[in-house]
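BUG: 3D viewer hangs when loading the predicted structure for this chain

Environment: internal workstation, default settings.
Expected: structure renders.
Actual: progress bar stalls at 90%.

Input used:
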Amino acid sequence: MEDKIVEIARFYEPEAAQMIESLLKSEGIKCYLRNEYTSQVMYPANMGGIRIELLESEVPHAMEILEANGYEFPKEDEEAEQIQVVSGWTRHVPFLRHLPLEKQIIVLFILVAVFLALVVYFGSLVSSN
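C-alpha cells produced before the viewer hung:
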C-alpha cells in the first residue's frame, strides 16, 4: 500500500511554518512546506497559508513531537468558525454568493486592488491640478 502525503498544519506566517518544519526534520521526519514561496509573494494577502505536509504513516509520530513541544492543534470548530466569518460577509455581495470561498477571496482581493489603483490614480490627478 502506498503512503499518501497529508497536511498536518497550516500557517500564515512563514517563520512559524519554518520552525515546525525544522523541529520535525530534527526528529527525523521528512516534511515539506507547500505554498511557502507563493505565500511570501502574496503576503499579507496569504489566502491558502503555508501547509506542512508529510507521509501519512509519519503523522502519529509528528503529532507526538509537536504536542511534546507545546504546539496546540486548533479544534475543527475553530477553523469552521473562521471560515464562517469570512463567508458571512461575502453572502451580502450578490455575484460572490455562489462562488467557492477561495474564489470569493480572490475576487475580493482583485476588487480591492482595482479600487486602490483608482484612488491612487485619481488622487494623483487632483494633486497635479
